[in-house]
Design brief:
The chain has helices spanning 2-32, 48-70, 72-100, 107-136, and strands at 36-37, 40-41. The protein is mainly α. It has a domain at 71-137.
Length: 137
């Protein structure tokens, strides 16, 4: 009979612990739901549109600052050469990766080897997007 009461006590404590944790998470999510909107504090006196305008202006200021720091007009050719050279480097790394891949019938090992190759491919795509953006400035 004592084993029954021990089991019943453990189940009751486990149930109360799980219930308390779930209740805390629900309360925390309900209380914080309207305090923050995508990293911006939501003041009840300000409308979301006003906050969006301030946020947009802050981003614009950072963009302007970066344009001055990068001096794209003066160093455009250097930036293009860096992107082209990096693209060549990644292409050569892709060739090296293919040549170093082991012919195996182990799917996990083969997938792991292709993950490296796919990451390099993604890097080349990112470099192309970067070049297109630079061309648009």
């Amino acid at each position: 009979m004592t084993d029954f009461f021990k089991t019943l006590t453990i189940l009751a404590i486990a149930f109360l612990t799980i219930y308390t944790i779930i209740h805390l998470f629900k309360m925390n999510s309900i209380n914080n739901q309207y305090k923050y909107i995508e990293g911006m504090e939501n003041n009840s006196s300000a409308s979301i549109g006003v906050l969006a305008k301030e946020y947009s202006e802050k981003i614009k200021g950072e963009v302007d600052k970066m344009k001055v720091d990068l001096s794209v007009g003066n160093y455009r050719k250097d930036y293009e050469n860096s992107i082209i050279n990096m693209d060549d480097l990644v292409g050569l790394l892709m060739i090296r990766q293919v040549q170093s891949m082991k012919a195996t019938n182990d799917p996990k090992e083969l997938i792991s080897q292709f993950d490296v190759l796919n990451t390099l491919k993604s890097t080349k795509e990112s470099l192309n997007v970067t070049m297109k953006f630079l061309d648009g400035l």
